[in-house]
Structures are given as structure tokens and as C-alpha cells.
Amino acid sequence: MTKSPGRRVGVLGGTFDPIHIGHLRSALEVAEGLTLDELRLMPNARPPHRDTPQVSAQDRLEMVRCAVAGVPMLSVDARELARDTPSYTIETLELMRAEMAASDQLFLLLGWDAFCGLPSWHRWEELLQHCHILVLQRPDADVEPPDALRNLLAARSVSDPQALAGPAGNIAFVWQTPLAVSATQIRQLLASGKSVRFLVPDAVLAYIDAHNLYRAPN
Ligand code: ATP
Fold this sequence. Notes:
Strand content: 15-25%
Shape: globular
Strand order of the largest sheet: 3-2-1-4-5-6
Oligomer: single chain
CATH superfamily: HUPs
Bound molecules: adenosine-5'-triphosphate
Helix content: 25-40%
CATH class: Alpha Beta
Largest sheet: 6 strands, parallel
Function: Catalyzes the reversible adenylation of nicotinate mononucleotide (NaMN) to nicotinic acid adenine dinucleotide (NaAD).
Protein name: Probable nicotinate-nucleotide adenylyltransferase
Radius of gyration: 18 Å
Organism: Pseudomonas alkylphenolica
Order of helices and strands: EHEHEHEHHEHEHH
Number of strands: 6
GO molecular function: ATP binding; nicotinate-nucleotide adenylyltransferase activity
CATH topology: Rossmann fold
CATH architecture: 3-Layer(aba) Sandwich
Structural class: alpha/beta
Keywords: ATP-binding, NAD, Nucleotide-binding, Nucleotidyltransferase, Pyridine nucleotide biosynthesis, Transferase
């Protein structure tokens, strides 16, 4: 394979309420498997009234920072939290692109469910002008796409994610078995006074404990 001249940058958005080992293993496996230079975890802004009680956007961000500290390929991109309302992905990608060289490759990571919802996204048909899309899919999943995406997949998908060439424009599937952990489960464990050790990195656990997050009020 000829080495692409540009940097290879991935981006994974999420609520990260809190970040856990499922997110981190998935991110690391994509970064290693696709030889990315950097994979940015991007916490999403939510309207302030939708934040979990006791847990602010700043806390979610700090936990992501704790999680990636010392992990060379993973980083944090806080730009969507600079606003307190949700950002459109297309606008985030435009901003990222403006900071990158024209030959740099940008990869947007999306779970299958998010990918299927694409046709409802603001200016969704422009997304591939700025990035490639990596669809994270379970090996055992059924992959019948919605009708609105059939033509796009036929025109833009490539079977080998390693073969994605150029800065943007194609779609590839990445098959991964996700770890059976969710942020919902972690919030529930904490609210019932149980431990989440080994479900989140130790540094994240220390942050949760120090700030008394997600626990039921005494
Ligand atoms: P919640 O339980 O609050 O819905 P979550 O654990 O699903 O949260 P999100 O912040 O919503 O976490 O997820 C961000 C991204 O990470 C999404 O694309 C989601 O599909 C993916 N993701 C969530 N859990 C896992 C997991 N265990 N393994 C791999 N990817 C995951």
C-alpha cells in the first residue's frame, strides 16, 4: 500500500456520560487498525436541562481528558462544548477541515444506528465532501440499510477500510465486537452505590469519586 501523504485523523462523538472502556477500546482498535495518526473523542453539547443531575458538560469533558491522558493516539476535541446547544456535525466538520491540510484524511466514526439516521441530519448530503465515514458494526448484525441510503452506499462504499483513499468521500464498514458496557449501566451502578471499577479507567473513577458524580444524594 502506498503511504498517504496527509495526516489521518478520526473523530468519535458521544455524550460520554461518562466515558467508559467500551468507547475507549473501540476507539483504540479503529485507530490502530486504520493506522490513524490521531483519533479525537468529541463530547457532544446537550441543552443544559438535559445534563445528568450533578454532572455538567465540563465534568464529561474532564472525564474524557482523564481517560486519554497518556494514550498517544487518542485525544479530546472540546469544540462542541464551547456552545451550550448541540452543534450540527456538518459545521463541526467544516471547522475541522479549515484547520487541516487539503491532503489530510478525516474519518467520521458512526455506529450503525447513527448511520441509518443520517438522512435526517442537517445538510447530510455534504458530509462526504469533508470526511470518509467509518460505520462501526457488530459482526453478527443485520445490515439492511434504509432506502434513502441505498444509492449512497452503492456509489460510495468500499469494502476494505484500509483502502479508503483521498481526503474524503467514501464509506467503509469496520466490524467490531463491542464490549458489553454502557454509560447507562455505569450511571445505574453508581446511583445504587455499587462500584464501576474496571468499567472505566482508574483516572475516570478517581474523578467520579472526587466530585461525587452520579451517586444518589444522601
Ligand atoms: P448511554 O448508555 O448513556 O446511551 P453510551 O454508553 O451508548 O451511552 P454514548 O456516549 O452515547 O455512550 O456513545 C458514544 C459512541 O460510542 C456511540 O457511537 C456509541 O455507539 C458508541 N458506544 C457506546 N458504547 C459502546 C461500547 N460498549 N463499545 C463500543 N462503542 C460504544
